Amino acid sequence: MRRSRSRLDLRAIVDLRPVAMVVGIVLLVLALAMLPSMLADLIAGHADWQVFLLSASCTAFIGVSLILMTTGVSRTPELTVRQGFLLTTLTWVTTTAFAALPFAFSDLGLGAAGAFFEAMSGITTTGSTVIVGLEAAPPGILLWRAMLQWLGGIGIIVMGIAILPMLSIGGMQLFRTESTDSSEKILPRAAQIATNIALIYLLLSLLCASIYWLFGMSWFDAAAHAMTTIATGGYSTYDASIGHFASPAIEWTAITFMIVGGIPFVLYVQILRGQKLQLFHDVQVRWFLGILAGGTALLAFWLVQRGLMFGHDGLRHAAFATVSVVTGTGYAASDFNAWGTFPVGVIFFLMCIGGCSGSTTGGMKVFRFAVLYQIARVQVLRLLQPSGVFRPIYNGQPVADQTAISILGFVFVFALSFAVLSILLSFLGLDYLTAMSGALSALANVGPGLGDLIGPAKNFAALPDTAKWLLSAGMLLGRLELFTVLVLFAPAFWRA
């Protein structure tokens, strides 16, 4: 019995080598990504270039060490489902830990909790920040924050179309059927899909930066904001966010590219390959645009009816707030906390929705709401016609019972996680609105919360360190679709 157990344990250790190899490669890429920030500080004559040199050296050392330790592993290993869960979570946590080094080593005085929070918020494209006085921060730090969100955005897209569907996370297999199933692949190989998406992601970022520059931003601000706009991350180079520029043209540009970031990037590949109407055939895209239009109309009506804003100003600020919150970008053009109780209530519920699957957005994702609507509709029809046969339909195809159950399970776990995180934050002494909106903002990867402490005109710097750790965990849970992380705590996961 002891001999069999030792052999079993040995096999488990060997099985972790492909995971370690991939983590090592990711860390090496992360170390290389620190070099532009180091150059930015060098050019500006800021001493923080040494911070990035040290951080990149530490990250590269660990990354290369992990790669060398797994030299005998195939470069294209076929990962098991268990390895897929472990790889996804470990990659995100490890990347965040090393991405936090520049924040921890700098003169910002963030501490371990603050540095990890800032890095987690960046890599998950949440957009919450604990840095006060961004205008005075070193250029390297500002660029590093933007690059973290930009890299996190493309990583989320790849995870959403390749890894999570394979793991059947919360109904994500629906998206796999649409985009990556062998019978309906838009390109012959998954590598080609990833390459095309990365190219489109880069081109859209360059286009966004160019338009920002044309409308008055400096090249540095334009590049930083373009990276965080297309990634729907929301990090800005100013405490006042997009509102700092006081430019309607810049705000409409941000609105446009936030919407672009909220649509499945696979559809852009299909459009470029001649399927121009594919964008409008996708149910979740129609739902997504409909929710944005509905939220904008509600907020604009309130602003005009209350005499807070009129005409174009009311429409622009209503659209900006709606798009920023639904896509989880978290940019702020004005303080919607000052608009009254109705807008705050609307925005609170919009925070949990998110964009489309296969996009850079967070939240529960629009496709889940579309499927839930179909499930509810079928249930009503069955009550009216007990002998009838009805099936929920999504994109013209019946939704499998297993998929429907996984979506319902995801919604339950999301609600439970929200309740637990809110209670824990309240236990730390945070007021009701701060705890509730902070928990939802973290799980939905939105960015700003509500209220006077963490609202769009404030940040998370005033929260205790324990709250920052809890919110960091919430961001990770939300970004990795909950089950990817929670399954690691199940004893059955570690049994062979």
Verbal overview:
With 496 residues, the protein is mainly alpha-helical. The protein has helices at 2-15, 17-33, 35-44, 49-69, 81-99, 101-105, 111-123, 139-166, 173-179, 190-214, 219-230, 248-261, 265-272, 278-281, 283-305, 311-326, 341-350, 366-384, 401-427, 432-443, 451-454, 465-479, 483-486, and strands spanning 393-394, 397-398. It has a two-stranded antiparallel sheet with strand order 1-2. Strand 1 (393-394) and strand 2 form a beta hairpin. It is globular.
H/I helix tally: 23
- Biggest β-sheet, characterized? 2 strands, antiparallel
Q: Would you tell me the overall average pLDDT?
A: 85
Helix-strand category? mainly alpha
% residues in beta strands? under 5%
Flag low-confidence runs: 1-14, 176-188
Number of DSSP-assigned strands: 2
Rg:
22 Å
State the helical fraction.
55-70%
Neighbour order of strands in the largest sheet: 1-2
> How would the global form be characterised?
globular
Order of helices and strands: HHHHHHHHHHHHHHHHHHEEHHHHH
User: Whole-Å distance between the termini?
Assistant: 15 Å
Oligomer: single chain
